[in-house]
Design brief:
By secondary structure, this protein is an alpha+beta fold. It has one domain: Heat Shock Protein 90, CATH 3.30.565. It is built from six helices and six strands, in the order αββααββαββαα. A six-stranded mixed sheet has the order 3-4-2-1-5-6. Strand 3 and strand 4 form a beta hairpin. The longest helix has 20 residues. The protein is globular, with a radius of gyration of 17 Å. The two termini are about 25 Å apart. The structure holds adenosine-5'-diphosphate and magnesium ion. The site of magnesium ion has 6 residues, from helix 1.
Length: about 180
C-alpha cells in the first residue's frame, strides 16, 4: 500500500511533467468528519476531455515510459478507504486532483514522510504552496504547517532553493513545525 506522501509525490510529479510554474499541495486532516482530504493543483498543460475521461485506466499514459500508475493507484486507495478521487482539468489552464478518504478506515494509508516529499518537490522553476492543516473534533483549526516558496525565495535573495544547505534548512523547519502540529493532536 502506498503511503499518502507517496501518492502526493506521484501526483506532484505529474504536475511537474505538465510544465507547471505553480503547484499547490493542500492536506487537511479533519478529526470531526473523520476524513483526510488532499488537493493538488497545478497550472500546467492540462488534459483534454478525452484524456481526462480515461485517465484512471491503468493502461493510459502519454509518456513514452510510464512513471508509475499515479492516478489509478490513487483511485484504488480512495476506493479501499471509503473515499473518492475527483480530477478536473482544462487544456493550457491546469489540473486539480482531489482525494477524500476516511481517516479511521482500516485501509486508510499512513501519512508517511510528507516532509521529505515536499522537500523533494522544491525547485527554482516552480512556485510551491504547501499547507497541511489539522481540524479538531469541534471542526476548528487546531494547527497547520505552511510552506510558501515565494516567501522563501524572497528571503534567499538569489540563492537557489535547491542548494543543499537550503534544502536541509527547510527540512529542519518543516520537521519542527510537524512536531508542533503533532503536539496539538
Ligand atoms: N497534472 C497533470 N497535468 C497534465 N496531464 C496529466 C496530469 N496528471 C496526469 N496527467 C496525464 O495522465 C496520464 C496518466 O498519469 P499517471 O496515472 O500518473 O501515469 P503516468 O504519469 O505514468 O503516465 C499522464 O501520462 C498524463 O498524460
Ligand atoms: Mg504519473
Amino acid at each position: 500500500m502506498k503511503e499518502i506522501a507517496e501518492h502526493v509525490l506521484d501526483i506532484v510529479q505529474n504536475s511537474l511533467f505538465s510544465g507547471a510554474s505553480g503547484v499547490e499541495i493542500d492536506i487537511t486532516e479533519d478529526l470531526q468528519r473523520d476524513r483526510i482530504r488532499v488537493m493538488i493543483k497545478d497550472n500546467g498543460c492540462g488534459m483534454d476531455e478525452d484524456l481526462l475521461a480515461k485517465v484512471l485506466d491503468p493502461f493510459v499514459t502519454t509518456r513514452s515510459k510510464r512513471t508509475g500508475l499515479g492516478l489509478p493507484l490513487l483511485a484504488q486507495t480512495a476506493e479501499l478507504a471509503n473515499g473518492e478521487v475527483k480530477i478536473s482539468s482544462q487544456v493550457k489552464q491546469g489540473t486539480q486532483v482531489y482525494l477524500d478518504i476516511q481517516r479511521s478506515h482500516w485501509d486508510c494509508p499512513p501519512l508517511g514522510n510528507v516532509v521529505d516529499t515536499v522537500v523533494s518537490c522544491l525547485s527554482d522553476h516552480v512556485e510551491l504552496m504547501f499547507v497541511h492543516r489539522l481540524l479538531g473534533l469541534e471542526g476548528g483549526l487546531v494547527g497547520e504547517v505552511v510552506l510558501d516558496t515565494k516567501e522563501i525565495k524572497e528571503e534567499l535573495d538569489g540563492v537557489s532553493v535547491s542548494h543543499p544547505e537550503v534544502l536541509l534548512f527547510i527540512r529542519k523547519m518543516l520537521i519542527q513545525e510537524y512536531q508542533r502540529l503533532e503536539g496539538s493532536k
